[in-house]
Amino acid sequence: MTESRPFASPDDMKLTSDRIWSGSSREDILEAFEAHPRIGDKKGAEQHGGKWASNEQRGMDSASNDIAIAMMKGNAEYEARMGFR
Fold it and tell me: How far is CA 44 from each of CA 24, 49, 54, 76, 85, rounded to the nearest angstrom?
């Protein structure tokens, strides 16, 4: 994606993303997911992406404990269903 910039429009960016993902192998996709922290995983955000990932996770800072637990369960269910991690 980075090498494809600048994009002419948001639609152009989406089309480029769709083209890249559709041409990716299963291994490529799993590698991308493995490099991205789980939603709500502050430690993982620091390890995987530093400031960028931590900023992306900021919305969970004000989440209730119930929401945090639901996100952990949802992450685990998604990963089991999709067959990775």
Answer: 24, 8, 9, 14, 13
